[in-house]
Every structure is written in structure tokens, then in C-alpha cells.
Amino acid sequence: MKPGEKLLNEAGLTIHENHIADSHGFTLLEGITVVTNRRTKIFNFCFFLLPAIVLYTLFFIRPLLQGINYSLTDWNGIVPEIPFTIDQDQFENEIVPKLKSKQGRQYLKQFYVLTEDGSGYRLKNWIESNNQIRALTNSERNQIKKLLKSAGVSAIKFVGFENYRQMFRSDERFLPRFQKRYFYNEFQDLPTTISKQEFRDYLLKNLKNASEIKFVNTCYQLDSKGQTYHLKTVLTATEDTQLRQILSESYFQTTLIPGVVGFTLFFTVFNVIFSNLLALMLALALDTKIRSQNILRSVFFFPNVLSLVIVAFIWSFVFRLILPPLTGIAVWLGSPQLAPYALLMVTVWQGCGWLMVIYLAGLQTIPAHIIEVAAIDGANWWQRFVKITVPLLLPAFTVCIFFSLANSLKTFDIIMTLTQGGPGYATTPIVLDIYYNAFRDNLYGYATAKAVFLCLIIMMVTGIQLFFMKRKEVEL
Amino acid sequence: MFRGKLVSWSLLTLLIGLLISNTILAVAPIRLNFFFYKQEISNQLKEMTTEFTKLNPNIVIDLEMIPNDSMAVLRSRMASGQAPDIIQLQSYAAVFEFAKAGWLQDLTKEAVIAKVVNSTKTAVTYRGKVYALPMDVAGIGIIYNKDIFNKYGLKPPTTFKELQNVCTVLKQNKVIPFASMFKVNWSVGHFLSMVHTTLAGEKVLPWIEAMNSGKASFADPVDVRQVFRLLDFYKANSHPNAAEYDWNEQQAAFAKGEAAMMVQGLWSYGAAIETNPKLNCGFIPFPCNDNPKDTKLFADVDSTLALSATASPEKQKAAKLFLEWLSTPQAIKLWVEKCKLVPTFKGADVKSMDAPFQDLVSYLNSGKTNPWAFSMYPVSVWEDATKNGAQEYLFGTKTPQQIIKYFDETWRKAVK
Question: Cβ of B98 under 8 Å from any chain A Cβ?
Fold first, then answer.
């Protein structure tokens, strides 16, 4: 039985396959062929499909192409399209001679005038015509732009794939990479004690030279318990400087710095897992017939309704005043190690209500009699869940995972309000990095390249996810 | 009924006639768009512009405040060709950036520029031309609580050693020496740049030039060891949870007297005094070494006013009239008393300002100041390498060497 028919059956209606199209010719039920005539098809195309395509091209394809275009330039975001000032020498000796037509030359000279002090030519933004002062019109600007372009002057330089190259080669903040984390820097006092394990792993292993190892071993001696190394009490001046040098060069641990991409991946993976798990658990709990289920559903959905400013306010309050006495950890959002997890917590809290609603809807489409039959056959709760509920819930999984994947790859708001990507760069996802590059560092072209990269990644990841999950879905 | 109709018709014609004659006869005022970011003076600015309109009835100034990301908004505004007529800009880098792109009017020959204290003009001079009117001078240093200092018999320190003693005494008495905020990066960024500049002293301007030509390093003009020792010192004498503190918590801690000092710009004083009106404060430079002569205040021009070069000629004229009016005693009085900002005009009367401002003015008058080097750093060096760098050092994720390397690289990329 097809799902639509089942619905109607339950509603006490019987239907004949041929009469399922409504008066306008729309297909009411999936899987049942409906004869729509040509005219309605054309009507539908002109009034519904065509505007959608036009809007899609206008607001998605065009900006995307424009973005790709910008990502190949070095535009910094503030240089105007036509230069306001041009050096005298450049204007007279390079630009003007290159213009072939006399008309063009005159046209340009009409708008660029030599400044009083003779430092260069300046664009006249306001001109007098017919005894009225008016601003330059768009067509005049375009004409100037065209003329300057033909003389080889444009405000924005084309740099090819330089931005992309830079993104993967020389951007220290972007990709994950190994970094030495030093425990001692030459400005500090020498550490008086070092634990045995650290001494072995982070110092001795990094020393290549046998004499250095010997020297360090004479300076630091293992105590009677055999757990910690203690610094010799008396050091000569030369010993002191040598030890300082050795420690500042070789006392380190190699750690992986996630970088912007690493943080985004970390955030995405854990957010998808945790928010879906929690949402599913909530949905399963609320699908049973407990009394307060409606209230509880609203309660769990509520964080989604809250404005982000309020969310940030609530949570910064929680992190500062409530969690420290409960957990004994004083610093949450200000700690580079903990802040990513703290942010994850907030995002899961805020996002799972929405996913829960989708899972709930999915659960309610599973007919109770199938589960009852399984129960009569002797399947226990876990078997029923794995063999019946999960396969039938797959469409909901597809939607939820798609939704959380795409959303966590482009998280911005919560992080911007809670940590601004800090401390340092520890919690900066790609989108925030793009924002910083574009609006803070004046690197529009570069930031656009990153945005294009992100767009491709999102398309790819969600595409793969949809492809595999759609294949697994079963229909009832 | 007929009469009623007649009356209503005649009324209507009268109304329309009035409307038409009004629009034809009355001279439409010139409307100037004033873009600013200092949210703490938004009401005060409104008062000032109304005063100005009283004197010049045909000019109306529309205020527009963009407190966060003002630069981003301004850039997008200019990119779309709608530059505001009067623009409040941060000194140095911001002015230079827009001047370089050609958005700002050359004000070198304006009369009002001559009325400004000479030393403030470097902040607005790009390639020998003045592109903005310096409006207020601000300082970053230690704002200290005089009552707490008196209670423990402490004197405002003039050397690093004295500062260390002050901190030890305060700690012994269970007072936190510094109210600090490490959660947000700008304050520690100020600290790093301040320490670096103070230690570099006279060498800082040549150093910036050398950096711009790609021939120098962060480490060159200073004893790097001292720079990072000071950061360690600052962290060690702050609240243990300062990593979680934001501006509000910092102000609260200082205003309540939990902490005796805070390293901040004098703009914070307003917030602190609002929380606790009984606060008795002083303002001193942060001593970075043991030579009292090197202890100079980190003070410079903060905000400036620039005029759009793309505005219509009559608007440009009106905007210049406004700048001219700002230099009158009446405007300066409003600026000082209402906005509580230190003016840059020669001989301005600042006697009515609170004690910390008097301290600032006395440092300015005696010339014991260092310029705000961070305003001269390229934008990405200041925003990323300095601010985030300072935070990364404080949280132990990077060593001084790594921070210096990143600082130098970012600068090299920015000037390439």
C-alpha cells in the first residue's frame, strides 16, 4: 500500500487510482500517475518554475560566479572602481598616449583635472552642466572605467590562483599543522623541578648530542623517590647560560595545532554526532505516552526560538558563575583548551530541539502495528529499535544529518557572540576567518577565495552524505 | 450637505496650496550625514549638532552611529559610492587608508587645522597633507584607585621596581593589583603595544619606518626579554580568573575596589565612575623599566573627523563650516563638559574635567608622551598578530619567538 493511500484509508476514504489528481492538475499522491494536460504544464512552468529559476540565477549563480571572479583578484575592499587620483606622470605619459581615439582622450580629460598643487590628476565627482551641479552618472563612470581599462589601468589586479595558493601554503592560521610547544623560554627562571616522564619525553628525546644529554643529566638529578628531577642548587655562570640555551631549544612537546580548518572539522564532526544523538534520544523519550510530553517538547524546542544575543548572554553567565563552582574549573571560554568544548555544548543545546522535532515527526509516521507485531514475535526493545525504528527513520536521519552538517560547517553567530574566535585563534571556524580576512585585514579577494573553497567543501560533503543516505532509505 | 462639501473642498485646496507653496518658498536645508563610532558620546553629539543648527538654520546634520565594525560598514558604504559627508575615523591607519584610496578631502589649508596643537597633526598627515581634523586625545596607562593607595601608604609608581613593590603590598593586603580582561583580545593588544613602544622610546618611529621597508623585526628596538617579562608580570598580578573577564567584569572589579589598578584607556574612567560615583582616581603611565625618565604616557590622538571628497560642493562647504564651528569656545565647552574628551585645540579650557583627565593633560603639556604605535601598524598586524599574539602568549599557546616571527611575517605581507 502506498503511503498516501494509507493516509486516506485511515481517514475512512476509499479511492480509485484514476481520480487522484485535483482540479488544478497537481499531483496529490506520489507514485500514482496523473494525466496533466499540456496547458497546465505550460502554466505551471511559466508561473512557478520560471520565476524560481530566474531568482536562483540572480541570487545564487550570479553571486557565486562573481565571487569566483573576485577570488582571482587582489581587491582589498576599499579601492574604488575608478581611481580618484592618478599621478601626473602616469596620467600624461602612460594613460593618455595609450588611448587611440581623440574623443576618448578628451572625454577622460573632461573628468580628470590637475590639482592646484600639481601633485596629480583628480577625478571630478561633481560636474557642472546646464548651469546645474550634478554627480557623475553611472554611464559616465562606466565609460571612464572602460577607457582606463583600455589603457591598462584598473583598480583591481587579476592574480590568478595566487589566493588559493597562499591559502594552502603560507597561511599559518588556516591548515592544521604541527607546532612545537615550548615549556621554557629563555626569559623565564630555570625550572627547579621536572617530572620524570616530562624529562624523558620532552627533553631527553629532543637532544641529539650525547654531550648535551650528559650535561643535562648532571644539572638535573633524580630525587630519592625516583619521580622528579631537581635542579642542582649551585650552577656556575657558564653552566647557567648553557642550560638556558639547551632548555629553550630542546624542551618542547610537538602538538597538533588544528588551525581554522581543523577547528571547523572538529566542530562539525562532534556537533553532528552529539546533536543528532541527543535529539534522537529526546525524540524517543517524548514519543512514549508520558503526560507532560507537549510541555516537554516546547521546553526542548525553546532554545531554538531564543535570540542569539540572549543565548550568548545566558551562557556567558553560566560559564562564569554557575559552572565554576559546580565543576571546579574556573575558566571556560577564556581557556584555549576548553573553549571549543564549551562552544560545542552551547551549539548542541541550541540545535538539538529543532532536530528533535524532525525525529519526532519521523517516529510518528512509523505505524504502531508493525512494532506491535514485532513485539508479539518476541523482539525485545533493542531489536525493535534497531530492526524496525531505525530503518524506517532513515529519511529523518537524512534530513537531520544534512541540516546539522551544513549548519556546523558554516557556524558563525554563536562563536562570534561568545568568544569572537578567541582566545587567540583557538575557536575560529572558517566563516569567522573569512569575515576577519575580509572586513578586518582588508583582504577581500583572499577572503572570497576562502569562501569559494568553503562553498565547494559544503557542496561536496553534503552531496556525498545525501547520495549514500538516500540509497539506504526504505519505503514503507 | 452641499455646504459641507464646499467647506471640505476649499479646505483641501488650501492644504494642497500651502504644501506646494511651502516646498517652493522654503529653502530646503542642506542635510549632512555624520558617521561616527564613539557610542559613549552619541547623545552629546546630538546636542552639539542641534546647537550648530541653531546658528546655521539651513544646515541639518543627521547623525549615524555604527559602534561595532564601523570600518566594515564604512568600507561597504564607500564601495557602493555612498560616502558619508562627515566621517569619524580612528587616527593614523584608518585615516591613511581612506586618504590613500582618495576618499578624503585635503584639509591642509583650512583655517581650523591651524588652531589645532601641532603635535597632534602627525596622526592625520598622509604624504604631507592633512586629511582630517584631530578631535580628541586619549591615553592608555594605569588608572589607579587613590583611596586604596592612600590606605596602604602607597605612592604612584614611576619605575618598574616601584610598581613591583606596590603590587607586593597590595597582594599582602588581599587586594588584587590589576583588574584585567584577557577574554577579549583588544586590551592585551594595547598592553603589548604599549610596553613595546615605551621600551623602544625614541626608536619607535624609525623602527616603524624600517618595518615598512621590510628591514626590521619586532625585537629590534627593545629588550624582548623585558617585553614578555612585563606580560608575565601583568598576568601574575591579575585576578586568577582574568581569562574569563570581559570589559564589564573589569570595570566592576575596579569600581567596587576589588582591584586597585587597571591598565586601560582613559575612556574606561567614565564607565567606572558611573558604577561608583565616589571613586577617587588618578592616571599614570605604565612604568616599563627602572629609569623614571623612560616612563612616558602612551597617549595620542584618538578620533578624528574627515570630510568626504565625493560629496557635492555645497555639502563640502557646509561640512567645513561645521568643523570651523567645532573650534569655537562654545563647541569646545560642550566637547569637554558633555563628551568628557580632551580636545586638541590650542589653549582649550579643560579645568572642569576630573582628576585623571588633568593628569593626562599635564603629561601632554610636558611632552612626556609616546605615540600610539599600534595605530601605525598595518591593520592585520594590529588586529591579528598583536592582539591575538598577546593573548596566545598569555595562554601559553605560543612562545615569544613564535609570536615575534608571526608579527614580522604579517607585517612583511601587509606592506608587500
Answer: yes
Return the biggest CA–CA distance within chain A.
Answer: 101
A231 and A105 in a common domain: no
DSSP B120: G
Distance (Å, rounded) from C-alpha B95 to C-alpha B92? 5
Q: Global pTM?
A: 0.81
pLDDT digits (tens, 9 = 90+) for B343-361: 988 888 888 888 899 999 8
- Per-residue model confidence (pLDDT) at position B395: 86
Choosing among 3.40.190.10, 3.30.450.40, 3.40.50.450, 3.90.1150.10, the CATH entry for B139-299+374-415 is 3.40.190.10
Residues 6+ apart with CB under 8 A from A395: A362, A473
Decide if A200 is inside a domain: yes
Considering only the beta carbons, identify the residue of A85, A424, A442 that sits closest to B388. A424
Residues 6+ apart with CB under 8 A from B355: B280, B281, B282, B283
In terms of Cα–Cα distance, which of B33, B102, B29, B69 is closest to B305?
B33
CB pairs under 8 A between A and B: 127
B72 to chain A, any CB pair closer than 8 A? The answer is: yes
CA distances (Å), origin A298, targets A303, A307, A468, B364: 9, 16, 33, 61
Confirm if B301 and B137 have CB atoms less than 8 A apart.
yes
Helix extents (H) in B289-369: 313-326, 329-337, 355-366
pLDDT tens digits for A363-399? 998 988 998 999 999 989 899 999 889 989 999 999 9
Judge contact between B382 and B173, C-beta under 8 A: no
Domain ranges of chain B: 29-135+302-345, 139-299+374-415
